[in-house]
Write a structure and sequence with these properties.
Number of strands: 0
Radius of gyration: 18 Å
Strand content: under 5%
Length: 147
């Protein structure tokens, strides 16, 4: 199996896990409250990552080098709170499929813009006619899925 196929499979699995996570976060948010659910999700994630670092044998002192990254790279933590908030409130109101469709449409559109402009120091990708067709089909598919 080529590495590209392997990475595509990992991405597909990550997408499936995101839909499950959003659903579970929505149920948790209904049971204990939106912000409380957001806190629990982040605390559990922090615990799991800490355990992985300890099991892996990484030195926690190496985290010091993380503060040498550009300031905007730390916005991911803030954005994660916004993502969990958005998913948690939209899935019960729109349904998992509709919310996920809207999320994916926003995600792919933003990703294309980031690629096109090479934002955040990432490699630029050129826009081609196949991408244009893909966007049109994405919008048509989103329109068909959204009720």
């Amino acid at each position: 199996m080529s590495s590209k196929i392997l990475f595509l499979l990992v991405a597909i699995i990550a997408g499936a896990v995101m839909a499950i996570q959003g659903s579970l976060n929505s149920v948790l948010g209904k049971k204990i409250g939106l912000w409380e659910a957001n806190l629990i999700v982040h605390l559990l994630g922090t615990l799991i990552v800490t355990l992985i670092i300890l099991i892996k044998g990484s030195e926690l002192s190496s985290i010091k080098t993380a503060f040498s990254a550009p300031w905007y790279t730390y916005l991911g933590g803030i954005l994660n709170v916004a993502i969990i908030f958005g998913v948690t409130i939209t899935m019960p109101k729109l349904g998992v499929c509709n919310a996920t469709t809207a999320i994916i449409a926003g995600q792919v559109s933003t990703a294309a813009l980031i690629d096109q402009l090479g934002l955040f120091g990432l490699q630029k990708s050129s826009f081609c006619w196949q991408m244009a067709v893909g966007f049109v089909l994405l919008l048509i598919g989103a329109k068909l899925l959204l009720k």
